[in-house]
Amino acid sequence: MNTLNVALIQTTCKENRIENMHLLEQQIHHAVTQGAQLVVLPELHNGLYFCQTEDLTHFDRAETIPGPSTDRFGELALELRVVLVISLFEKRAAGIYHNTAVVIESDGTIAGTYRKMHIPDDPGYHEKFYFTPGDPDFSPIKTSVGTLGVLVCWDQWYPEAARLMALAGADMLIYPTAIGWDPHDDEDEQQRQLDAWRTVQRGHAVANGLPVVAVNRTGFETDPSGATAGAQFWGNSFVAGPQGELLSAAGGDPEVLIAAIDFNHSEKVRQIWPFFRDRRIDAYHDILKRYRDQERGKG
Q: Looking at the 3D structure of the chain, how many domains does it have?
């Protein structure tokens, strides 16, 4: 497949799971009518972003894989003959929970999973309370529409994760996301954060010579504890090509965003910008250290 039509479901999530799932199904149906062969949903799309607080009752939201959501989305993928990337709160075992992306093949089967590796812990984003980091394996998932390098939200800031997915043969990088502003931030600070988010991911596209798909939720969600002013998820989902060029971009409102990805262009870009060829793999040993002590360079 040389060209792929991908749809990004930028949506406002609801607390009521049944209503939320029904809305997602409608949006996926719409995406397929627009020619989508691959549909990507935002992070933890089955409900509100519960990680704004630390609350033991939220563990009841978790589900197994396979489980109810993979069964339901699997039936939908088979019905529409489309590949889906969904995002779930996974109960792997007693006391072990993950933030997990699942790729569902167009025949309804599970093609693979990726468990979020980088887990944030910031005001309003208490993910370390809920999620165990995934096992250290940045392996892309092979599907009928290409080999998908699926990562999740906070992973999108780390060039190491993107590079390892690319080196393992990913045709594209995909980031289901839930990121927003603190409503108390002024407009300048909000713009700086949004620009940084776009820039770092477009940089991954350039550095690795492959497309990047980033899909965010949108809308305001209150902090039930009242400890923060809540989160204004900023949307702005986008698809970038292998030179960082924007192929399609959304604003801040709910939207089904469609983009055409040309895999032949990725190959041509890697020919003129052969970053993989010129990597000095013999000189990168210190990348495995937490921090390189400055004393080493003295004398």
A: 1
